């Protein structure tokens, strides 16, 4: 056994812990289908949100961890339930009034409000695939509509008819008494209205594979095959696992109470329940669960406007079993922590590398970081200089890193552009300057004088020592109050990166000018 495989089998990183369940699952023999199947689900009732990306990213991390431990081939599928009826009109689409008449019709036949695709389901599926392709995921896309209508699901649907009583027994235990009277695991699609019907069954025939029900007062019989009938979402989960022989699926905490239902239905239909991983939900700035239909939180496009794809993957890796706020203010921290891990990786031993998030983000081959300036520092630079373009930022960056160029440091160049956009959209509107107290004004004046006369070490560390000395000499205790004063008076923020590094990047003359403006009150009206 190689050192890599041995270390992977012992690693405590959560993707390896999940992957070990699959190694154990097939310890005696490989799956008959020839590969281990990972599945992710998507409900295209609204535009794909960042949580959908997170599910695929995290599943991919487990998949790659498994591949480091086993020679069994793998496959990842992204399954879209676009045969589901549209329960409500999303609030974040154009011309929502046009969709009102299509409520409860399958998403794959509801007109596209964006007028770009044949249906709303097609539009949202295309959005999902575009984003997944942007991130380079290796996956196969499955459409529920195609899956049902093409006959790929027929065998398991006929098995559902044969096992109808057993499935209903499982489901009825989980329902309130008033719901039990009308519940059926089958949802016929009305030949009259085209709507997905939530109606009780009058009869279910295992002999000919049909269901009989009332459709607007008229008794109707349909075959369960060929896409005329779909399954309720809980039975659909278990039936899909059985039909595809799924080995691993993760889903949000809101599904966790249904896991035993999915598993039992899968077993009733002759399948083996997959390994599961339940993750916590993402919350918006108000602590509310993010939603595709309401569009709260951050979209994938929005994150990429202000930061790299890799920083988003880093955010997704962190503590998946803990609920996390997913708002714009998490972006700078994610960017800087991602690059900290990149810089640490080359010097780590194998065990530490396998625990490093960047191993899982880059499938064991992380690149070198070219971020010689932290993102948080770039934000403060944009703030101090009121930069409008990355080119303006580079004028300062080259004082700090003379050999760096956009061509040699493309990641830094992209981050500079991200920082300018982030500053103007989020930092600038919330900047609040204040006047310095007498003690703070004296200290800032002293710092100005010492910088004017300074002929020492102009590195970030050398200048940080100078700033520290001023704070100590003026009696700031704790010293963080000194740095808080610097940022509130000079940059309109209560915190920031090491100020010595900021001076090295921004320039000593420019910092002197910044202090003079701060002491004069020039920023108070901005």
Quick rundown:
The protein folds into five domains: 3-153 and 232-283, HUPs (Rossmann fold); 174-230, no CATH class; 300-361, no CATH class; 375-430; 438-520, Arc Repressor Mutant, subunit A, CATH 1.10.10.350.
Describe the structure.
This protein has a 5-stranded parallel beta sheet with strand order 3-2-1-9-10. A 3-stranded antiparallel beta sheet has the order 5-6-7, with no helix packed on it. It has helices at residues 3-10, 14-25, 50-69, 120-134, 144-149, 154-162, 164-173, 177-180, 233-244, 259-268, 300-306, 309-317, 331-344, 350-355, 357-361, 375-385, 390-400, 410-427, 438-453, 460-473, 480-490, 499-506, 508-520, and strands at residues 36-42, 74-80, 140-143, 186-188, 203-205, 210-215, 218-223, 229-231, 248-252, 275-279, 282-283, 324-325. The mean pLDDT is 92. Helix 10 links the parallel strand 9 and strand 10. Helix 6 crosses helix 9 (233-244) and helix 16 (375-385) packs across helix 22 (499-506). The radius of gyration is 29 Å and the shape is elongated. It starts with a helix and ends in a 6-residue tail after the last helix. By secondary structure, it is an alpha/beta fold. It folds into 5 domains: 3-153 and 232-283, HUPs (Rossmann fold, 3-Layer(aba) Sandwich); 174-230, no CATH class; 300-361, no CATH class; 375-430; 438-520, Arc Repressor Mutant, subunit A.
């Amino acid at each position: 056994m190689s050192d890599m495989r041995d270390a992977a089998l012992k690693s405590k990183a959560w993707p390896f812990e999940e992957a070990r369940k699959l190694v154990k699952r097939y310890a005696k023999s490989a799956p008959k289908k020839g590969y281990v199947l990972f599945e992710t689900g998507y409900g295209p009732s609204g535009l794909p949100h960042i949580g959908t990306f997170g599910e695929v990213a995290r599943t991919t991390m487990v998949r790659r961890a498994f591949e480091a431990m086993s020679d069994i081939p793998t496959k990842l599928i992204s399954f879209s339930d676009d045969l589901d009826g549209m329960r409500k009109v999303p609030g974040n689409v154009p011309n929502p009034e046009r969709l009102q008449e299509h409520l409860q019709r399958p998403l794959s036949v509801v007109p596209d409000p964006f007028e770009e695709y044949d249906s709303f389901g097609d539009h949202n599926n295309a959005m999902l695939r575009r984003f997944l392709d942007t991130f380079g995921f290796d996956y196969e896309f499955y459409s529920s509509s195609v899956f049902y209508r093409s006959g790929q699901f027929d065998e398991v649907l006929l098995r559902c008819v044969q096992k109808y009583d057993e499935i209903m027994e499982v489901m009825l235990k989980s329902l309130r008494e008033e719901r039990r009277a009308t519940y059926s695991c089958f949802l016929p699609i009305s030949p009259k209205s085209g709507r997905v019907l939530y109606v009780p069954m009058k009869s279910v025939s295992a002999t000919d594979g049909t269901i009989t029900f009332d459709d607007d007062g008229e008794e109707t019989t349909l075959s369960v095959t060929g896409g005329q009938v779909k399954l309720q979402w809980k039975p659909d989960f278990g039936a899909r696992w059985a039909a595809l022989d799924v080995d691993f699926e993760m889903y949000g905490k809101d599904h966790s109470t249904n896991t035993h239902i999915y598993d039992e239905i899968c077993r009733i239909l002759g399948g083996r329940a997959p390994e599961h991983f339940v993750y916590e939900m993402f919350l918006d700035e108000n602590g509310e669960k993010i939603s595709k239909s309401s569009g709260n939180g951050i979209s994938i496009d929005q994150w990429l406007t202000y930061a790299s794809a890799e920083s988003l993957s880093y955010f997704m890796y962190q503590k998946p079993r803990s609920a996390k706020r997913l708002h714009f203010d998490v972006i700078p921290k994610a960017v800087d922590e991602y690059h900290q891990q990149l810089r640490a990786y080359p010097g780590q031993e194998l065990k530490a590398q396998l625990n490093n998030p960047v191993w899982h983000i880059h499938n064991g081959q992380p690149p070198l970081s070219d971020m010689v300036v932290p993102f948080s520092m770039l934000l403060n630079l944009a703030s101090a200089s009121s930069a409008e373009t990355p080119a303006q930022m580079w004028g300062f960056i080259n004082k700090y890193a003379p050999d760096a160029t956009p061509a040699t440091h493309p990641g830094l160049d992209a981050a500079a552009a991200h920082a300018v956009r982030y500053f103007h959209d989020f930092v600038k509107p919330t900047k609040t300057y204040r006047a310095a107290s007498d003690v703070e004004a004296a200290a800032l004046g002293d710092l100005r004088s010492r910088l004017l006369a300074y002929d020492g070490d102009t590195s970030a560390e050398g200048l940080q020592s100078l700033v520290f000395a001023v704070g100590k000499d003026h009696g700031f205790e704790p010293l963080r109050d000194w740095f808080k004063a610097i940022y509130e008076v000079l940059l309109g923020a209560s915190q920031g990166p090491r100020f010595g590094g900021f001076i090295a990047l921004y320039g000593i003359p420019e910092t002197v000018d910044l202090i003079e403006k701060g002491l004069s009150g020039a920023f108070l009206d901005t």
